[in-house]
Amino acid sequence: MDMTSVVALRFTGPAPVMAQTFEEIYAEQLDYVWHSLRRLGVDDRDREDLAHDVFLVVYRRLASYDPACSLRAWLFGIAYRVVADHRRRARVKREVLDDTVEAVAPPPAHADRELVLRALTTLDLERRAVFILHDLDGQSIPEIARVIDAPENTLYSHLSRARRDFAAAVKKLRGGVP
What we know:
The protein has about 180 residues and is mainly α. The protein has helices at about 5-10, 20-40, 45-60, 70-90, 110-120, 125-135, 140-150, 150-175.
């Protein structure tokens, strides 16, 4: 067998088979996508639409999903791109909202979660994505590099700066108390 045949055999094997259906992924991962969008800074009024956009992409690309990659990391990568696209479009179109409804303070039990979410909003999207995937979701930098399609060294730099900026934001939000 010559080298051409070996190469052809190696690349013509069957595509990886997804163990779950789209419906199962949707049912099991909707909460994760919803919370990921929130952590990426998506407003409450836009979250439902963007969650649907994420799952439209999932539906279209499910056949190309590589099971070697964590499903949650793959979903987060899709959510990250959907949010980035949404922000680019939002720069062009501005929506005026009626602010007649008074804001309600979150219950004390949610104070820490709200503090984290507010601190996350101070990070730019790229750093926030790396911080969330690595420090909150426990993904490795090589895994994140595959999902976000960015060099690992850049991601390590983003993570370091995100940690520093996040700590400063938390301190500021607490009134200077670390």
